[in-house]
Amino acid sequence: MPPFVAWELPSGNSNLPMAAGVVAALRGEPCAAELMALAKLSRAHTVRREDWREALAARAVARALTLPWLWLWPTCVGRLVAAMSPPCRGRCRVRSAPRAA
Fold first, then answer.
1. Which of 18, 45, 42 is nearest to 32 (CA)?
2. 21 with 33: CB under 8 angstroms?
3. pLDDT, tens only, 22-41
């Protein structure tokens, strides 16, 4: 039977890198946890208070990498907002199940 890691990495699952980021943050290296927090916010909770400056610097570097594609940000936000709105926009009616009188 192949090991767990052999199934995780080829499938593109990000659980192992995120777990490594949490372990690194608990050991005092917050940059990995901060980069993983861009994917899932709960990873930022593992950063200790004395490491926040270093973590924010890592986030600033990650944001600076997106500056050449700054024109894509409004499109991305627009698609996120459209995904949150209801798909039928008031035209769908949900009928209640008939009740026995």
1. 18
2. yes
3. 888 888 888 888 887 777 76
